[in-house]
Amino acid sequence: MNNNATDLTIGFISSTVAIVLFGSNFVPLKKYDTGDGMFLQWVLCAAIWLVAVVVNLILHCPKFWPFAMVGGCIWATGNIAVVPIIKTIGLGLGLLIWGSFNALTGWASSRFGWFGMDAEEVSKPLLNYIGAGLSIVSAFIFLFIKSEIPKSTCSVDTTPLITEHVINKTQDPDPHCSWVDKLSTVQHRLVGCSLAVISGILYGSTFVPIIYIKDHSKRNDSIYAGASQNDLDYVFAHFSGIFLTSTVYFLAYCIAMKNTPKLYPEAVLPGFLSGVLWAIATCCWFVANRSLSAVVSFPIITAGPGFIAAMWGVFMFKEIQGRQNYLLMILAFCIILTGALCTAFSKI
After folding, report:
1. Is 176 inside any structural domain?
2. Is residue 20 part of a domain?
3. Which of 121, 174, 180, 275 could form a disulfide with 154 if both were Cys (CB 3.0 to 4.6 A apart)?
4. Residue 177 falls within a domain, yes or no?
5. Which residues form the domain of 336?
6. Residue 180 confidence (pLDDT)
7. pTM of the shown model
8. What is the pLDDT of residues 169-209, one digit of tens each?
């Protein structure tokens, strides 16, 4: 009984830390120009990998399973859209949308045993389905919340009318402006919401390889027989997949830009801090998975950060304004919180 109480305490503390950090890890980046986000995502992923190295050393270098890297590849693919999402629809709304689809994808894949995983049985199936349905409803409500994002201006007025080599030449737009800055208001919302949905689906699939390995470790005829049941033992492989994939994307970006990538030195330290916060939050999630089980920790941790980010968006960045938006946000959060609790208690 004492051990069970200790596990619950560790699990809920880890979940709380993960929620706060996931909801806040992009806050350091809000005041800095990050362009199209390709350079930033590489800096962020480098920081994530360094945290993984530390964790791996603390755990005395557990066995490395390359397949666990696939989850990191999936996450990194979704992560390249984060900066455009934040610049188009804001941190609060973006995290609420991708968090909803993250929760829904993670729930469905484990509940029905997609991708070769063992289907997760629950004692109260109806309660479980209600929770998943509420997540879908909340996702649609989030789409109607309008965020106020200051539109970047790509001014050409700062360019001299006469230069040493060119006279009366039509000036090109500011080379530092990214493609996101050139979108119209309608395009901002369409692109931002679409990318948030795609990122959420990818985020919800990131743990699939790890769960697959753990499920198949119980089968003697599997190549993963005897693999660890401790989620933290897969952190290094998972984070290595993240860094490797982000590096490939960044190199491809450099090639596409003809070796003239848009770099933003002022975003390096904030990006590094953001990566460290995310990595710590994910490690806490792994601890919560072990202490509470994924069916309890997953809906809680995916629901909570949206509220934290929304609070940043309302009180700090003023992205979400107006009584109607406030009411919709409160309604959506209540629905997703109810859904998370239903999903969690369906196992108990």
Report:
1. no
2. no
3. 174
4. no
5. 32-148+185-345
6. 65
7. 0.78
8. 444 445 556 666 667 777 777 888 889 999 989 988 998 99
